[in-house]
Amino acid sequence: MEPSAHGLAGQVAASPFERRVTAHQLRIFKAVADRSSFSRAAEDLHLSQPAVSHQVKALSIAVGAPLFEDIGRQIQLSETGRLLYEHASLILSDFEIAGRAIDEHHGLRGGLLRLVGDTTVGIYVLPDLLGAFKQAHPGITPHLDIGNRQHVYGRLLANQADFAVVGRTWLRPNPPMVEVPFLPNELIAVAAPTHPLAGERRVTLARLAGEPMILREPGSGTRETAEEALSRTGRPMNVAMELASNGAIKRAVARGLGVAILSRYAVSLELRIGTVVELPVAGFPLHRQWHLVYPRNRRFGPVGTAFLSFALDGRWRESLPDVLTTE
Predict the structure, then answer these.
(1) How many CB atoms lie within 10 A of CB 213?
(2) CB 120 within 8 A of CB 222
(3) CA distances from 112 to 100, 103, 108, 161, 178 (A)
(4) On the CB side of 185, how many CA atoms lie within 13 Å of its CA?
C-alpha cells in the first residue's frame, strides 16, 4: 500500500548523525573531555570505567574518527573531538533546557534547582538563601550539594549543578565560567581561650605562623587562603593537623591543639559562647569574596533565571540569622 500524502508529510527522516549517535554517548564524551580522564568522568557519572570507555569507542566508530589522543600521560581531544565537543555542549544544553522547561510547566509552579557550594558557604550561608528562595517560590525543589573546591568544579563540569558558590574560582576553567560577586567573607585566626596568644593585644603574622596550625584538607579554598597569608612570613608552616571538616577543626582548636584560620561565618556561634576566641593578628581579618559561578554557555529556564535574579538582588542577606551549628 502506498503511503498517503498526509502520511509522508507527517514523517521526519532522522539525519545520519542522529541515527548513529545518542545523547547518552555525547554526555559521556563531554564528561571525559571536561575531566581529561576516563576514570574521573566515570566517577562523576556514577558509571564503571569500562562502560565509559565502551561508549566513547562506540561514538568514535559512529563519527568515523578518534575523539581523543594520548599525549604522554594526558588525554586530549583530537581535531574531530574538538569539533564534536562544541556541538555536543550545545545539544546537551538544549536537552537540559527542554526537560527543565517541561518540568517547570508554566512559570515557577514546579522544577528543580541544583546548587553546589564549597564547604563553608554551603553549610553556613546557602541553606538560608535556599530557604528564602523556597518561601518566594514554594513549588521549586532546591537541591544542595556541598564539598571542597575540587568537588564543586567536578559537579559543574559534569552538569550536575546549575550554579556553584565558591570563595576561590579556577584559573582558565574549561568550559569558561561566569563569576559574579556573591557575598563578602572574612577569615579570622582563632584559638582556645587558654592559648598563650589569647591574652595578647597584638599578634604578628610571623608569631602566628610559628604556632601549631590546624588546616583543612588540600583542595580547600580556606586552606589555600591561609597558606598564602602565612607564606608572607617566609617561615615554613607548623602543620599540626589536617582535618576535612570545619566542625572538627573548631573542636581541635577549642581543646588547645593548635590555632586555625576560618571564616567568621563558621565560628560565629563558638565566638559567642566562648569555646574559641579571635586572635588580634596584624593584617587580619583577611577579606575575601564568595562568587556565584555558572558555565558561560548555560541557558537557563524560568527557575534558573529566577534564582539568579533572587541571589544577586541581595535582600535575602538582610534576614541571615545567627549561625546555630557547630559543624
Answers:
(1) 22
(2) yes
(3) 8, 8, 10, 10, 21
(4) 27
Question: Please, which residues bridge with residue 214 across strands?
Answer: 241
Instruction: Find all residues with CB under 8 Å of 123, minimum gap 6, and list them.
Output: 146, 246, 266, 325, 327
Give the pLDDT band of residue 2 (cuts 50, 70, 90).
Answer: very low
Per-residue pLDDT for 134 more than 80?
yes
Q: Are 225 and 286 a contacting pair, CB within 8 Å?
A: yes
**For 220, phi and psi rounded to 5 degrees?**
-80, 135
Give the strand pairing for 277-278 and 286-295. Answer: unpaired
Q: Residue holding cell 584560620?
A: 261
- Which grid coordinates are listed for 257? 591543639
**Which three-class secondary structure state does DSSP give residue 270?**
helix
- Residue 137: CB atoms within 10 A of its CB come to 21
Q: Residue 293 — very low, low, confident or very high, per pLDDT cuts 50/70/90? A: very high
- List C-alpha distances in Å: 155 to 35, 141, 148, 150: 11, 18, 11, 9
Q: Which amino acid is at 293?
A: V
* pTM: predicted TM-score of the whole model, two decimal places: 0.66
Q: Where are the beta strands (DSSP E) in the chain?
A: 68-71, 74-77, 112-118, 141-147, 163-166, 177-191, 213-215, 239-242, 260-263, 277-278, 286-295
Q: Which three cell numbers stand for residue 78?
A: 583530537
Whether cis (ω within 30° of 0) applies to the bond prior to 173 is no
What is the residue whose three cell numbers read 565558591?
166
3-state secondary structure of 11: coil
| Domains observed in the chain | 13-93 (1.10.10.10), 102-183+289-319 (3.40.190.10), 185-288 (3.40.190.10)
Q: Note the helical H segments in 112-204.
A: 119-124, 126-136, 149-157
23, three cell numbers: 545523547
